[in-house]
């Protein structure tokens, strides 16, 4: 029962009084109205615009968001209204659906935004009313086409990893811009197609007279040269065809494709000619076969997108064209018959039979008017003029169809190219955002540790260096920090990573143990001496300290451990809780200047990791990790 | 042979149909199939009061959670793909898909392939507001990939490898091939009391409760919401 009709139910029930006198049996009991609830007004606040409606209106459709208890999730206790942070314009349509039972689709609305809103409110789009359904479907289909295009091009761009030789070759053939070799091949074949076509044309041009005989076409005069050219072109085409055949992922499908048929037709006449030069009878047929050489020009369609679009257009309006062809044939037959019988009377008429009149009809309908056949009788002239007038109309009909199809497909193609460019830009943006966020983490790590170090040392100043991260960001950074702790590795950026790799490959000798940390120059170390060959030996680790030094450039916390002579690099100190180690007697000023590059001593500060499982003496725990109590500060 | 003749017949029929269409001029239908008939899987959660009773969240917190949930998944259920995408956004450095996979299967208690809001909120309630025991039990369930009640070394390897995958490539020090393996060895050394190669729930609970760091870190995310 339609929702709005429910309001008329009391009337229908009251009208049942008309049955009472007629009824034989007693009536069943009426259902009790358990909840004598007054219908209440509900306020729906959608992004600030308030809509009001009765509760029963919304409850007409109980399997949508507004009609079920799901809307309680959006109830605001303070203002006693339901707040939705969505688009108020589309909400208008949604609410009208509850009121009238018909869902309309506003034309100015974007189709995917509309779909999103419908999905949010739990309304299926199929119930859009008839008045707007066409439009909705059209727009949705356009959108789907566009998405399909995107997916197709995506699939073409994929399959980067590890292609076999055959697949690379196929890709090179299909898309010449993938590699220089493919491009070269593309242009070479294009050149040879052009050469072949021009040769075919020039062959037949009369080339000047050999004294004593009539004018010869060039083909016969320089037959050897033309034969060589033809051979060369056919060689190239054969090689290309065989390579394509080899590289095709599905050879059977490739053989059936149009382009391959064109290729075969282009090179076949040559081979047939080679085989059959001797036989006199067939040489006539052989000459005809040479006509097929002109099909080589269709090989250009691989090279020209416009040709492909044209071919695709014709294919797509094949049915319209076929219909028009059929009606044209009908008209030709009608007019030819009429002209034949009209001209039958006149003597020496050229209209000898109906098929002979076909020629006149076609020439007249297409407004060519060669004049080789003209009607002489009056009736013939009348019908002839009717024929030419109707011809104009009939011929003009297919043109807009083809043009509109062509323009649609052409624009689609252009749109696809534009979209591909947009997509590349979008992916680049996403990549930048990704690296941006990871860099943001590294940045904040540095700044955050610095601030914590300062807080630890009880220095009140310079507390808020870069403390402008939002709560969400700091929570996200804390999450990443926890991950670092879990795996006992740190995030660094690409350049540092590459530097480390280079250094590790350069210095692969076991480092010697440095007896005491006090031997290092302390905070006044310059960069050069930091890069000195003095390395400290870390148990079970091959980390040369220069790498650590470079890491220390980044990680500010290491300055804290710098003044700890007690923090030796012995294994026993690994589990040392760094509580006692974090009151360095370095001045504040030195720390503040050293955000980017800290003159740290070349010592490793393996603050003990007071952590569960991976903390025990595994070989890769000698990492200059952050002091545990600093972790405590940030974690709790 | 019969297949061939059938194909020929089909081809002939199609050819005849094309000719007929050409002659009579029936225009072709749209190529794109009408896929609009697919039904939307829509799920509505239970009432707010019910959820409030079942979990340790207040009404307001449930409302906030639901709004965020519905924003990403208007249909009311999360499937694994969406879950992985959402989770991957928090870890731009590495590949979070494997860990998200294990997480998803820990959330999806009924193994239906989709997580409804109730499942989501129940699990969150345990993780954020549950007792230590409940949290540890949930974590055990996460590690136990095949849900047989025991954690063996392969399962732990998978989990630890997934965690290491999230770090990405640019780490310091450079991630070596056997780092996860060593990590797992250490873990098993600690957890597996009777050295039988598998960790049961009791062993897990016991070992975790012995370790102060684990206990402390479990309290870490108390006030996430």
Automatic annotation (TrEMBL), chain A:
CDD domains: BTB_POZ_KCND3
Transmembrane portions of the chain: 181-202, 222-243, 255-276, 321-342, 354-370, 382-403
Subcellular location: Membrane
Chain segments carrying region Disordered: 504-544, 597-625
UniProt membrane topology term: Multi-pass membrane protein
Keyword terms, alphabetized: Ion channel, Ion transport, Membrane, Potassium, Potassium channel, Potassium transport, Signal, Transmembrane, Transmembrane helix, Transport, Voltage-gated channel
Signal peptide coordinates: 1-16
Domain named BTB: residues: 40-139
Cross-referenced InterPro entries: BTB/POZ_dom (IPR000210), Ion_trans_dom (IPR005821), K_chnl_volt-dep_Kv (IPR003968), K_chnl_volt-dep_Kv4 (IPR003975), K_chnl_volt-dep_Kv4.3 (IPR004056), K_chnl_volt-dep_Kv4_C (IPR024587), Shal-type_N (IPR021645), SKP1/BTB/POZ_sf (IPR011333)
Superkingdom of origin organism: Eukaryota
Gene3D superfamilies to which the protein is assigned, alphabetical: 1.10.287.70, Potassium Channel Kv1.1, Chain A (3.30.710.10), Voltage-gated potassium channels. Chain C (1.20.120.350)
Any one of the GO BP annotations: monoatomic ion transmembrane transport
Chief localization: membrane
Any single Pfam family the record assigns to this protein: Shal-type
Biased composition (Polar residues): 504-529
Entry-linked SMART domains: BTB (SM00225)
PANTHER family (alphabetical): POTASSIUM VOLTAGE-GATED CHANNEL SUBFAMILY D MEMBER 3, VOLTAGE-GATED POTASSIUM CHANNEL
Protein name: A-type voltage-gated potassium channel KCND3 isoform X2
Phylogenetic lineage: Eukaryota, Metazoa, Chordata, Craniata, Vertebrata
Gene: KCND3
TrEMBL record, chain B:
Cited Gene3D superfamilies: EF-hand (1.10.238.10)
EF-hand domain mapped to chain residues: 95-130, 131-166, 179-214
The keyword Repeat is annotated on this UniProt entry: yes
Keyword Cell membrane: yes
Domain of life, source organism: Eukaryota
Subcellular location: Cell membrane
GO molecular function: calcium ion binding; potassium channel activity
Sorted UniProt keywords: Calcium, Cell membrane, Ion channel, Ion transport, Membrane, Metal-binding, Potassium, Potassium channel, Potassium transport, Repeat, Transport, Voltage-gated channel
Family named by the database record: Belongs to the recoverin family.
Name of the protein this chain belongs to: Potassium voltage-gated channel interacting protein 1
Species for this entry: Canis lupus familiaris (Dog)
């Amino acid at each position: 029962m339609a929702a709005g009709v429910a309001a008329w139910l009391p009337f229908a029930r009251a009208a049942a009084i008309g049955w009472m006198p007629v009824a034989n049996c007693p009536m069943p009991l009426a259902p009790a109205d358990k909840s004598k609830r007054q219908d209440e007004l509900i306020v729906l606040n959608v992004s600030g615009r308030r809509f009001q409606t009765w509760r029963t209106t919304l409850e007409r459709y109980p399997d949508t968001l507004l009609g079920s208890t799901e809307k309680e999730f959006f109830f605001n206790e303070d203002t006693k209204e339901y707040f939705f942070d969505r688009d108020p314009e589309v909400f208008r349509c949604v609410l009208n659906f509850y009121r009238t039972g018909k869902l309309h689709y506003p034309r100015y609305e974007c189709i995917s935004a509309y779909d999103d809103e419908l999905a949010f409110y739990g309304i299926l789009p199929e119930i859009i009313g008839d008045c707007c359904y066409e439009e909705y479907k059209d727009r949705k289909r356009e959108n789907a086409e566009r998405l399909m295009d995107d997916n197709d091009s995506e699939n073409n761009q994929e399959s980067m990893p590890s292609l076999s030789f055959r697949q690379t070759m196929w890709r090179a053939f299909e898309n010449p811009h993938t590699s220089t070799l493919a491009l070269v091949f593309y242009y070479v074949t294009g050149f040879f197609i052009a050469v072949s076509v021009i040769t075919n044309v020039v062959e037949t041009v009369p080339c000047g007279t050999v004294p004593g005989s009539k004018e010869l076409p060039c083909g016969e005069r320089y037959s050897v040269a033309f034969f060589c050219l033809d051979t060369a072109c056919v060689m190239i085409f054969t090689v290309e065809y065989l390579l394509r055949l080899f590289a095709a992922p599905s050879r059977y499908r490739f053989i059936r494709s149009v382009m391959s048929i064109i290729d075969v037709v282009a090179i076949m006449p040559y081979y047939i000619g080679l085989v059959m030069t001797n036989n006199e009878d067939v040489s006539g047929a052989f000459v005809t076969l040479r006509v097929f050489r002109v099909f080589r020009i269709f090989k250009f369609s691989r090279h020209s997108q416009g040709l492909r679009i044209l071919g695709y257009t014709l294919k797509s309006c094949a049915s319209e064209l076929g219909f028009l062809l059929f009606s044209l044939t009908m008209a030709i037959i009608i007019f030819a018959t009429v002209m034949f019988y009209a001209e039958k009377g006149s003597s020496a008429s050229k209209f000898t039979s109906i098929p002979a009149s076909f020629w006149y009809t076609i020439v007249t309908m297409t407004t060519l008017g060669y004049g080789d056949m003209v009607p002489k009788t009056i009736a013939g002239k009348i019908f002839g003029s009717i024929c030419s007038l109707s011809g104009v109309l009939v011929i003009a009909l297919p043109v807009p169809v083809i043009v509109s199809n062509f323009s649609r497909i052409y624009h689609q193609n252009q749109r696809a190219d534009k979209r591909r460019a947009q997509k590349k830009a979008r992916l680049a943006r996403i990549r930048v955002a990704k690296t941006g966020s990871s860099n943001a983490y590294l940045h904040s790590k540095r700044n955050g540790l610095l601030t914590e170090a300062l807080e630890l040392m009880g220095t009140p100043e310079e507390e808020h260096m870069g403390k402008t991260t939002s709560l969400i960001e700091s929570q996200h950074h804390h999450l990443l920090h926890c991950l670092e702790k879990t795996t006992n590795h740190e995030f660094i950026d690409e350049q540092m990573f590459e530097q480390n790799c280079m250094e590790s490959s350069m210095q692969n000798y076991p480092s010697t143990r440095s007896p005491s940390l006090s031997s290092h120059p302390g905070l006044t170390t310059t960069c050069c001496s930091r890069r000195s060959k003095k390395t400290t030996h870390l148990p079970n680790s091959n980390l040369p300290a220069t790498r650590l030094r470079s890491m220390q450039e980044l990680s500010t916390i290491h300055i804290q451990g710098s003044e700890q002579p007690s923090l030796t690099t012995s294994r026993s100190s690994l589990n040392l809780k760094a509580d006692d180690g974090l009151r360095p007697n370095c001045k504040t000023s030195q720390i503040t200047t050293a955000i980017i590059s800290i003159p740290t001593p070349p010592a490793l500060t393996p603050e003990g990791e007071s952590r569960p499982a991976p903390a025990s003496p595994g070989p890769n725990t000698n990492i200059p990790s952050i002091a545990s109590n600093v972790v405590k500060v940030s974690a709790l | 042979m019969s297949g061939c003749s059938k194909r020929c017949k089909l081809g002939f029929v199609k050819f005849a149909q094309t000719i007929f269409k050409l002659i009579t001029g029936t225009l072709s239908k749209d190529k794109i199939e009408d896929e609009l008939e697919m039904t939307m899987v829509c799920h509505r959660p239970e009432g707010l009061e019910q959820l409030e009773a079942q979990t340790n969240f207040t009404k307001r917190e449930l409302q906030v959670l639901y709004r965020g949930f519905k924003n990403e998944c208007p249909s009311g259920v999360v499937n694994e793909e969406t879950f992985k995408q959402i989770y991957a956004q928090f870890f731009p450095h590495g590949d979070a898909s494997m860990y998200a996979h294990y997480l998803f299967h820990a959330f999806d208690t009924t193994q239906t392939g989709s997580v409804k809001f109730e499942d989501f909120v129940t699990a969150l309630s345990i993780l954020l507001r549950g007792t230590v025991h409940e949290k540890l039990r949930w974590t055990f369930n996460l590690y136990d990939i095949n849900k047989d009640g025991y954690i063996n070394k392969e399962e732990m390897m998978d989990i630890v490898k997934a965690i290491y995958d999230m770090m990405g490539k640019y780490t310091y020090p450079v991630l070596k091939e056997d780092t996860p393996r060593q990590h797992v060895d250490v873990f098993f050394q600690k957890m597996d009391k009777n050295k039988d190669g598998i960790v049961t729930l009791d062993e897990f609970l016991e070992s975790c409760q012995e370790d102060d760091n684990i206990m402390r870190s479990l309290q870490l995310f108390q006030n996430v919401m």
